[in-house]
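Format notes (please read before filing issues)

Several people have asked whether sequences and structure tokens are stored in separate files. They are not. Every record keeps both together, in the order shown below: the sequence lines, then the token lines. Line labels are part of the format and must not be stripped during preprocessing.
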Amino acid sequence: MANDYVFNDQLPVAPLKIAALESCRVLAGKVNDHIVDFRRNDIEELKRREADLHYRGYDVDSYLLSCGCPRFGSGEAKGIIKESVRGTDIFAMVDITNYSISYTVNGYTNHMSPDDHFQDLKRIIGACSATAHRVNVIMPFLYESRQHKRSKRESLDCAMALEELTAMGVSNIITFDAHDPRVQNAIPLHGFDNFMPTYQFVKAFLRHYPNLPIDKDHLMVISPDEGAMDRAVYLANNLSVDMGMFYKRRDYSRVVGGRNPIVAHEFLGASV
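Then the structure lines:
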């Protein structure tokens, strides 16, 4: 079935290439398959209207870029792209929370941390930013997003990471449900898109529990802390159910492990 619309007289910025790091290859494969089908249907619709989209690299079998980050015996790595990206629009995809990938350091097995994934992302950007028309980063979980503000003598890691990426030539950064989207203030002149996957969450939830009755007698939305209140309020209002939340009562007279210990979890709301 052809798409309901076409981009009338509007060409893409440049030929598309998806630079999927090992941590995000499965998701990137699904994105690639969707774009391939989408654009082929687009071509069919344009031909039906006696028009054609003459554009280099618009309709190809795959938009995935052949790239990788091999490591030396010392554990150090390098970014390699195995095809030309001159004049292309690069979308680098990385999942910094994929802990399943391991590598060897001096004979020891080491699982990749968010820092390792972020370094690999910078290696791929460094390998292609000089010749690519534009570089974009898709990071489903924003790197260091929990360290988004300074409360004591602390480093602002998320802001530094965003500034580091833009300094390397990244034009746009795309993430989902950032811990605090106000971190984009660190890069006000660059693109920062924070998409909320609320609809996808509800759809997956209802598909997994198809017989779940959505009413006040059978369902209640509970926020685990104050930080998730906005999300819980949004879900409760749209599903027309009750809402509650947990409040973490802390002992501010002591510091254990760099933070004030939690004394108790107090539940606020109607009876479950």
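For reference, the curators noted about this record: The CA atoms of residues 203 and 237 lie 16 Å apart. The mean pLDDT is 87.
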